[in-house]
Amino acid sequence: MENKSTLTILVPIYNEEENIHQFAEEMNKYLELTPVESKVLFVNDGSSDNSQSLIEQVCTEHKGYSYIELLKNKGLSTAVKAGIDYCKSDLVGYIDADIQTKPQEFLKYFEFFPEYDLVNGIRANRKDTVVKKMSSKIANAFRRKMINDGIEDTGCPLKIMKTEYAKRIPFFDGMHRFIPALIQLQGGRVKQIPVTHYPRFAGTAKYHLWNRIKKPFFDTFAFRWMRSRYIRYEIKNEG
Q1: Measured between alpha carbons, how far is 50 from 36 in angstroms, rounded to an integer?
Q2: Which of 1, 175, 187, 192 would give a disulfide with 110, using CB separation of 3.0 to 4.6 Å?
Q3: Neighbouring-strand partners of residue 118
């Protein structure tokens, strides 16, 4: 990994006021150790609680933090897209603010660049509710069977990818469930590594059993349709 590389870590936020300060403490541990110049970008997805004022406080108190605030709540895929559009670094990462995965895990990712174009975590020994684990297991199995992407845990919120690939992702609502497959669609190489999973620090998950199974079901068919019509080319020569 070349030291001149830069990384922007996206942190989508929707009503996470209980977690923001503790998340910053965990992120600061990573920022103190990382060999890669890194910045943190909060993407406030139209929170209705006190998240925005806490985000602004963190950005004022700590170097390397910034934010964008969306006008309305549009969902996780839109928040990730907005962050990628705003990103100007060589690499772009993604992590949730619930601290179920820790930013220091990113330190293990850098050895796989530039050989790979995306490094994706696999949550080991997940510390989720039975319902959440079961719905995720069903959705992952269905996705792998239908699109054969070979990704064990596409929903793991601990990713780093080359920005040039991220900006070419064809975005749609539900896209965040298919980021590894969408990198592969461009001819990109994906590396999967295990990461530690923790119980949620505070607050509650924003998804329930119905939208963890129903939406991925329809999104998988949308991806299959899009993949069958995806345009990809390479220029052989010019003059």
Answers
A1: 32
A2: 1
A3: 161, 190
Q: What is the pTM of this model?
A: 0.83
DSSP type of residue 36: S
* pLDDT 10s digits, 72-113: 999 999 999 999 999 999 999 999 999 999 999 999 999 999
d(CA 206, CA 195): 22
For residue 28 the two structure tokens come to 């600061």
Crossing angle for the helix pair 51-61 and 20-33, to the nearest 10 degrees: 30
**What number does CATH give the domain 6-228?**
3.90.550.10
Sign of the dihedral through C-alpha 169, 91, 72, 205? positive
pLDDT in tens, 159-168: 999 999 999 9
Compute CA distances 41 → 12, 35, 104, 175, whole Å. 8, 18, 16, 20
Residue type, 114: P
Pairing outcome for strands 118-124 and 158-162: antiparallel
Query: Quick one: DSSP state of residue 212?
Result: H
Question: Hey, where are the domains in the chain?
Answer: 6-228
Longest dimension (CA), the chain: 60
